[in-house]
Amino acid sequence: MDTIIEASHITKQFATVTALKDISLTVRKGETFGLLGPNGAGKTTLVRILCGVLSPTSGSARVLGHDLFSEKNEIKRKTGLLPEHPGTYEDLTAKEFLSFVGELYGLAPERRASRTADLLSLFDLSDRGDDLIAGFSSGMRQKVMLASTLIHNPPLLFLDEPTSSLDPTVARTVKDLIKSLSKESHRTIVVSTHQLPLAEEVCDRIAILFRGEILACDTPAALMASSGTSSLEAAFFAITGMERKEVDLLLGWGE
After folding, report:
1. Which of 57, 196, 201, 220 is the residue whose CA sits 20 to 30 A from 168?
2. Regions of the chain where pLDDT drops below 70
3. Quick one: which of 37, 38, 48 has its CA closest to 12?
4. Are the C-beta atoms of residues 119 and 150 closer than 8 Å to each other?
């Protein structure tokens, strides 16, 4: 199986704080790979490094065959990123925003128009395409942002807390989309989340991050087997050594 991401000994230091400590991992073509951990574990920092937004303090990586240091622009061009707190241009309509993002990626006008129409239909927003984003609910804005990550048809997606603050109906739509993109179009997806149900449902393999380190990385079934537990939740407790009260404080298992 082709390797899409190969990271070796990634460390990230912010002043006196070490956000990531000697991270090594591989992500395979067509899989949905989960980065699971509490807030502050280093998930977002790792995502930003792997998509070329941040530079690591040390270490190396290749993403889609491109070097993390010398070919950042190529990595950005070929990947899609949905940040945890995405920003939109509220004075644009959904159509205008998607067309704008498509133009940034160099898409021709005809292709921008056709892909915008397809994505608005996919996310059930066709009847709101000419409405200003300023009037959209948080769920509708998340749909627009997800559509914008797909406008240039990237083979690799980074989704940072993709169901955060969404109502159950929209969250279900996002989960189904993640699964279909991976299984039907063989797209590779990296999902960063603190929500265990999301990771368990959509991820083929999961890396458990805790205090800047990867403590374990395997399929959900293998994580349970290696920790001698019968649920992914129990496996997380066993692998991290966290107490239940700590997890209740730091992790939002529910939707």
Report:
1. 220
2. 1, 243-255
3. 48
4. yes
Give the predicted TM-score (pTM) of the model.
0.89
How far, in Å, CA of 43 to CA of 53, rounded?
Answer: 14
Written as one letter, the residue type at 65 is G
User: 197 in helix, strand or coil?
Assistant: helix
Nearest residue to 130 via CA among 107, 85, 99, 170: 99
Closest CA to 193 of 19, 49, 67, 33: 33
Query: Mean pLDDT in the chain?
Result: 90
Q: Which residue from 36, 152, 29, 252 is spatially nearest to 44, judged by alpha carbons? A: 36
Q: What is the pLDDT of residue 207?
A: 97
Number of domains in the chain: 1
Question: Is residue 118 situated within a structural domain?
Answer: no
Nearest to 46 by CA among 205, 222, 193: 193
